[in-house]
């Protein structure tokens, strides 16, 4: 059995860990508000014929790699782009890997989406060119 001060240390670490986890989840929502909401809207449904919906989006709910590449490069980076959406999305490669992971995890778990999380390592591996 831990002495009372040992329990306090354990409880403090649990509080820090839980707070850290919650803060990271909150970071995705805050970053979405800062970088994405003006186009994709607070509800994730976008603007018809301007910006696509993130809710129920095959891109958002599909495999992580194409989404990561799209967010890094933006729609102007896509070859042979044919789209019903008038506005182009800029690439967000200037953001840090953990920021992009937080945003994409947020959109993959919000607006009725239930896709898996994206880690900063996944973003880093997509950002870094692979050598042959």
Main traits of this protein?
single chain, 132 residues, mainly alpha, Cytochrome Bc1 Complex, Chain D, domain 2, 0% strand
What is this structure's SSE topology?
Layout (H helix, E strand, L loop, with lengths): L3 H32 L1 H4 L17 H4 L2 H10 L23 H12 L11 H8 L5
Helix pairs in contact: 1-5, 4-6, 5-6
Describe the structure.
- By secondary structure, the protein is mainly alpha-helical.
- It has six helices and no strands.
- The chain has a domain at 47-77 and 87-132: Orthogonal Bundle (Cytochrome Bc1 Complex, Chain D, domain 2), CATH 1.10.760.
- The chain is 53% helix and 0% strand.
- Helix 1 (4-35) crosses helix 5 and helix 4 (64-73) packs across helix 6.
- The model is unreliable at 4-23 (pLDDT under 50).
